[in-house]
Amino acid sequence: MQRLLDFFGSVRLTLGVLLVLAVVAVGGTIWPVEQSFDQGAPVQRFDLYYQALWFRALLGLLAVNLAVCTWRTILRVLGERQRLLTALENVSPGKGEGGCDLPAGSSDELAHRLAAAGYRVRPASGGRLLGGRHALARWAVPVLHLAVITIMLGALAGGLGFVGTVNLYVTHQTDSIFDWESQGQRPLGFTLRLDRFEPVYYPIDLQIAIIDPQARRLLQTLTTREGETVAADNGLSLRVLRFYPEEEHLVLFIERNGRPLGEYHALSGQRDYPNNPDPGVLIKPAAFRDPMIRQLHSEVTVLEEGREVRQAVIEVNQPLVHRGVAIYQTAYARDPGGFWYCGFQFSRDPGEPLVWAGSIVLVLALLVVFTVRPQHVALVPCATGWRLAALGGFPGAAGRERLTALAAVLKRSSAAKP
Asked: How far is Cα of residue 265 from the mean position of the Cα atoms in its chain?
């Protein structure tokens, strides 16, 4: 059993699996998006590599390796206190490398000074003192491992979800979608109705024609854009409220000599809008630049058992989430009859909360690992006073300098006492 644990918890296994996964990732990146084999159906590289059973087996092996390492790390952290006490018993009170001599004083005084320096002090056998700080940082590594395992579990749980699509005409509704995994219809558990849709454009540059309504003669051409106001002859002022490029429908607010005439709808060609105010001229959209889409705006209603339970807006990068199902705007078009319809993607990922939680904890644990170092010291009584020795957290030359600095602080505290 121990050999089995040693195998699954070895660093060599970790490095080997990671190396194989890296090579596979290179192949999955450079492989064509779609490739046929023996006149068969095209195979997607996503299915060929990342959805293959052998690839998932590699990930499973990595997860087992990480779980064993995590368990051993937890046991090591839990046994930290006993190891420190053992190391404390082995500290020699005599002179030697790796320690600093302190003047004589009571153990209570020295414990107080060490606590003032930020250490938690605990008495041990033989009048010795054990001091430590940032001890909780020891848990950063096992927490980091657990965060990675949580992310992997979240990715595994994502396979229990689904991705589906549907196209909806305005005013139409649906309670099922096409599931791409099963290649069939999947019930949603609620009904989605598309109430309204419009593409939102950046301001469009326009040319407006002013026409004599009797002679149908062009009197003036004005250049403007949405949101701007332009002055015409005969004291007319035209403010562009909105332009619908698909219908070539221009909405203006007209004033004459500062007196409002009202909202005017200008249509291209021979079309005329009923009930327009009479400015004395005919106004038509003459030309416009190609519109550029800024946003897609869909107004929807969610129904359950025939009752409207929610109204919302779906836009690009602004999905609607209902009962754990995220609804995204993915497409739009007009049929030959001029009716709008929209494409929506529905996705449910039960592992998403685990992935988010694991990612946040992973980042925080990494910050602790790289910025906080647990430190433990021993204070041992000797013939001339006390001896300060490092038990952990003081590696290399920089560690020896920090230990010397701590000894200097304790000496100054002692000298400051009356």
From this structure: 45
